[in-house]
């Protein structure tokens, strides 16, 4: 499958994030723990889209929401 | 302070942990329990803070157990140290990070979704047999068969041995769940561990010879990449068999009990099956299967205004956090549409239950199947009998009529 690179917006649902840190392992350029030891987005463009997608998929709570920056379409979950 | 509040094994605490923890929370949210020799946390914020702080709070139970034993005991309990010390739940980073990451891909919500049709079919087959009888013993005839069948299929282990596997798992549970009334709990756990290892070792060897698509084959492939040792594979298989059914079995049984005691909620779910997801979250909060989990302070830490010294143990009462009135309005009310419902039944932080997505799926299918096919049941025993453990909320049996 070929695809044009999609600009993603990323946010974390604070009601779902449990601080598993899986996202930080997959995309350390994007995520870091905040003072409550929940994940937060430090730089949405800090990793290639595949790593961002992998980080979102590995979240045990599906707390990471990815959307197409241009269309607003939900990419994950 | 009444002495009974220091007795985690008092019949009142075992039979009704929610009232017990309410009393303790009202007295002191971070309480030094002299009899147990550690801190007991009953407030939501404190439980969450400690569980998320894996830098300061260790899960390495075996290291702390080792310091409490003499040389002879350490030798006697060798199977516990050889196997349980490699369990994901009892290890800290960096080993935890490496093994969790390898396993996590197989247990994400997306990854486990593929098992839903099979789980649904297991549930339906069981209920087709049970329904005409108008009665069942929920634990042994239903709740244990769903998750154990699933985890054995997932691992690629033959289902015909499941009664033996259940027996060995129960033996491990005497240690894991803190059966404080059982002086032989460590010996019993060693028997269970040894039996399960002897059962699983040939399966692992066989998958090494001829890999399939099952989880054991995937673990063996990690061994080839030198990402896992053989001892870690065996230990992980034991953990998956044990963790893969005991707690889910209890979640289903506790859920049936809660809904049987609230027939209006049973009927509400029957009328609107779309509520199943939030219903299972509420059952996890209301009477989940793991009441508490323990951590050990690596360094001095202040929690809820109390100073916890390095080396001291901390009991994080998940059940208590889940009924903290500061976080859950009317915490003792069962409301299958409760939202938001940020319960901590699966823990928090890096040790958040690996199997949580699978447990959720299994409980959803089990409870959905029951409420769809059966009317609200009656509990056909005047007294409920719980296993006397600090950690596990586990009924011995649950007979119902419908």
Walk me through what this model shows:
The complex is a heterodimer of chains A (77) and B (402). By secondary structure, chain A is α+β, with helices and mostly antiparallel strands. Chain A has one domain: Alpha-Beta Plaits, CATH 3.30.70.20. Chain A is 19% helix and 25% strand. In chain A, the strands form two sheets. Chain A has a three-stranded antiparallel beta sheet, covered by helices on one side. In chain A, strands 2-3 form a two-stranded antiparallel ribbon. The longest helix of chain A has 10 residues. The relative contact order of chain A is 0.29. Chain B is built from 20 helices and ten strands. Chain B has a five-stranded mixed beta sheet, with helices on both faces. Chain B has a three-stranded antiparallel beta sheet with strand order 4-10-9. Chain B has a two-stranded antiparallel sheet with strand order 6-7. Helix content of chain B is 53%, strand content 9%. Chain B is globular and about 55 Å long. At the A-B interface, loops of A face helix 7 of B.
Please outline the helices and strands.
The complex is a heterodimer of chains A (77) and B (402).
Chain A: E1 8-12, H1 22-26, E2 31-33, E3 39-41, H2 49-58, E4 64-68, E5 74-76
Antiparallel strand pairs in A: 1-4, 2-3, 4-5
Chain B: H1 11-15, H2 17-27, E1 30-33, E2 38-41, H3 44-52, E3 57-58, H4 61-68, H5 71-76, H6 78-83, H7 95-104, H8 109-113, H9 116-130, E4 135-137, H10 138-143, H11 145-155, H12 162-176, H13 185-209, H14 215-224, H15 230-243, H16 246-261, H17 263-271, H18 276-287, E5 292-297, E6 301-303, E7 306-308, E8 313-317, H19 318-321, H20 356-373, E9 378-379, E10 399-401
Parallel strand pairs in B: 2-8
Antiparallel strand pairs in B: 1-2, 3-5, 4-10, 5-8, 6-7, 9-10
């Amino acid at each position: 499958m070929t695809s044009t690179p999609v600009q993603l917006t990323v946010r974390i649902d604070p009601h779902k994030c449990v601080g598993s840190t899986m996202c930080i392992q997959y995309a350390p350029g994007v995520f870091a723990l905040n003072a409550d030891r929940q994940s937060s987005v430090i730089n949405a463009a800090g990793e290639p889209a595949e790593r961002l997608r992998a980080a979102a998929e590995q979240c045990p709570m599906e707390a990471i929401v990815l959307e197409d920056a241009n269309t607003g379409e939900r990419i994950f979950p | 302070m009444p002495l009974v509040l220091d007795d985690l094994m008092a019949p009142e605490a075992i039979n009704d942990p929610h009232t017990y923890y309410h009393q303790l929370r009202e007295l002191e949210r971070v309480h030094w329990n002299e009899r147990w020799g550690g801190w007991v946390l009953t407030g939501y914020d404190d439980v969450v803070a400690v569980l998320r702080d894996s830098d300061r709070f260790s899960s390495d139970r075996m290291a702390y157990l080792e310091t409490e034993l003499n040389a002879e005991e350490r030798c006697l309990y060798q199977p516990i140290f050889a196997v349980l010390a490699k369990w994901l739940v009892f290890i800290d980073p960096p080993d935890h990070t490496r093994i969790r990451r390898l396993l996590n891909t197989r247990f994400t919500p997306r990854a486990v979704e593929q098992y839903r049709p099979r789980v649904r079919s297991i549930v339906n087959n069981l209920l087709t047999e049970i329904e005409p009888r108008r009665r069942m013993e929920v634990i042994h005839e239903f709740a244990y068969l769903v998750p154990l069948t699933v985890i054995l299929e997932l691992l690629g282990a033959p289902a015909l041995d499941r009664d033996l596997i259940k027996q060995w798992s129960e033996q491990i549970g005497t240690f894991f769940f803190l059966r404080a009334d059982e002086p032989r709990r460590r010996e019993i756990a060693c028997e269970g561990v040894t039996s399960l290892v002897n059962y699983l070792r040939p399966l692992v060897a066989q998958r090494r010879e001829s890999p399939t698509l099952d989880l054991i084959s995937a673990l063996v492939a990690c061994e080839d990449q030198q990402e896992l040792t053989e001892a870690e594979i065996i230990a992980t298989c034991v953990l998956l068999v044990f963790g893969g059914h005991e707690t889910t079995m209890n979640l289903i049984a506790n859920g049936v009990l809660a809904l049987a005691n609230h027939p209006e909620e049973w009927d509400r779910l029957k009328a609107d099956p779309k509520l199943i997801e939030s219903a299972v979250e509420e059952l996890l909060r209301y009477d989940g299967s793991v009441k508490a989990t323990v951590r050990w302070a690596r360094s001095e830490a202040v929690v809820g205004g109390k100073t916890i010294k390095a080396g001291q143990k901390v009991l994080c009462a998940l059940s208590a956090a889940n009924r903290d009135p500061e976080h859950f309005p009317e915490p003792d009310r069962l409301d299958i549409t409760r939202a938001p419902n940020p319960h901590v039944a699966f823990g928090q932080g890096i040790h958040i239950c690996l199997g949580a997505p699978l447990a959720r799926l299994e409980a959803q299918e089990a409870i959905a199947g029951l409420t769809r096919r059966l009317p609200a049941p009656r509990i056909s025993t005047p007294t409920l009998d719980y296993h006397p453990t600090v950690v596990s909320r586990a009924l011995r049996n649950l007979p119902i009529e419908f």
